[in-house]
Amino acid sequence: EKRAVTQIEKNGYPDSIYVNAAKIFQGIHTEESKHRNLVRYGDNAESPMMAFKDEHSRRVSYELAFSALKYQVLLEEMLLDSKVYPCYSIPDELTSLLVVMLYDLQDRKFQKRKISSEEELVAEVQEIGQYLYSYRTKLAAALARCRIKYDALSIEYFVPETLFKQEQRASALPVCFWINTLKISLEDVIRDLEMKGFTKVESMSDFDHYTYAVDQHCHDVLVFPSSLREELLNLDLITDCKLLLQ
Predict the structure, then answer these.
(1) Where is the NOL1/NOP2/NSUN 5/7 ferredoxin-like domain (predicted)?
(2) What are the Cα distances from residue 142, in Å, to 93, 94, 152, 185?
(3) In this structure, what are the phi and psi dihedrals at residue 13, rounded to the nearest 5 degrees?
(4) In this structure, which long-range contacts are made by residues 184-193, counting pairs with CB atoms below 8 Å and at least 24 apart in sequence?
(5) 12 — alpha (psi -120 to 50), left (phi > 0) or beta?
(6) What's the CA dihedral at 201, 207, 213, 217 to 10 degrees?
(7) How far is CA 205 from CA 100, 127, 202, in A?
(8) Do residues 220 and 178 touch, judged by C-beta distance below 8 A?
(9) Where are the alpha helices (DSSP H) in 71-110?
């Protein structure tokens, strides 16, 4: 079996990812939430300083923050319904971290996060992570009540309609990557992809799952089927910044 594309199991993120995602969420969360008088996010007047380990960490931090933003109303309702919030030991300035980590906890089906022995731990992340996990049963029950209340088969029901339509359009678009010619050549990229089980085709009309095409106008751009987006982002070619997502 040549193909080496796999889905990464959801075990959580390093503490630094949660910290940066919370800072991003703090600046983008909506103040129009129906729970705005009950859930307080503290002062976000100053732009947060963020230190990303690498481009992969930056991308994951933004993805986590925007995932929490999509489900902000649902996450706030879960916190309030379960009585997990307010918690007087958690200041308003850490509410964004609480919401971001709650999104990740439900995304892992309320399973315990695996922490690497090499990871640099952050006290606030550890405290909130343990706090949320200790209430996982109540939070899962609150999520179930929300789904029953709104007759929702999945949490995707809670995505705002305008954003849902945007995501539908975006998900149908092919995925494009620039070849970072400072690190790798087109020939070496093609060789690497072939070893992973990908097949080169002449055009997008020939796409059939593990296939790709070279852009007809920009020969340092590769185009892949939209269905491969998540798997592609886990390839070493991408994590090593040899291919750059357009």
Answers:
(1) 179-227
(2) 24, 21, 13, 51
(3) -125, 165
(4) 184/237, 184/242, 186/214, 186/219, 186/220, 189/222, 189/237, 189/242, 189/243, 192/237, 193/237
(5) left
(6) 110
(7) 39, 51, 8
(8) yes
(9) 72-81, 95-107
143 token code pair: 């999520």
Q: Is the pLDDT of residue 195 over 50?
A: yes
Contact of 128 with 101, CB cutoff 8 Å:
yes
Q: Cis check for the bond before 86: say yes or no (omega within 30 of 0).
A: yes
Amino acid at 33: S
Helices (H) and strands (E) counted in the chain, each on its own, are: 10, 5
- pLDDT tens digits, residue range 204-235? 888 888 899 998 888 889 998 888 888 888 88
Residue scoring higher pLDDT (5 or 20): 20
**Share above pLDDT 90 across residues of the chain, in percent, rounded to a whole number:** 44
Residue indicated by tokens 């296939």: 211
- Coil, strand or helix at 21: helix
Joined tokens for residue 83:
């009585």
Identify the burial level of 5 via C-beta atoms within 10 angstroms of its C-beta, where 0-12 means exposed, 13-18 middle and 19 or more buried.
middle
Task: Return all residues near 38 (Cβ < 8 A) that are at least 6 apart.
Answer: 76, 80
What are the respective helix, strand and coil percentages of the chain, to the nearest 5? Answer: 50, 5, 45
**Tokens encoding 144:** 């179930």
Residue indicated by tokens 């995505």: 159
Which pair of structure tokens corresponds to residue 121? 């731990």
